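REVIEWER CHECKLIST
Item 1: Sequence provided? yes
Item 2: Single chain? yes
Item 3: Sequence as submitted:
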Amino acid sequence: MCRGLAALPASCLERAKEFKTRLGILLHKPEFGHKIGSLSRGTKQRYALEEVLGWKESFDHLLRSKSGVAAFHGFLKTEFSEENLEFWLACEEYKKTRSRAKLAAKANRIFEDFVQTEAPREVNLDHETREATRRNLTAATSACFKEAQAKTHTLMEKDSYPRFLKSAYYRDLAEQASSDRVAKPTHT
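Item 4: Structure as written out by the authors:
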């Protein structure tokens, strides 16, 4: 006989949430049309040294670079924290949607995947932002994730991005780009 979730001890609910999160990671499939790049498929991509060093200019500079996003995503995967970037990218793709009919369906999918409590790839949002986003879904517009996306951007900029720049992952990319540059013969 099923007792319902309310009757379960808190430890069981925590284990279930952890299991759901891990299962979501294992079953993850990009559904929002964004392509993260070859690093997410487990192969090393080659970058120009100027490009890799340019990612240090600003977080927004990194996000404007397709290969920067791919490298940052690869780093986040090593920390099992790629959901913020994936949410941000899904929001960027969502904002390009012009069909009003598709807006609501895409908005609901993004909300269920990233924003709602206990979502498979739940992003770290405060209760007020989560509820404001839920209310925005009643009349889905291209701006319904604006506040949640901004908070996620700030979190990545202040937390994940500095760790990325200080990481062995980034240093390895810079060293690889530097050695590729030295190894290439120059034409005169």
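Item 5: Key structural point noted by reviewer: Confidence is low (pLDDT under 50) at residues 1-5, 21-43.
Item 6: Recommendation: ____
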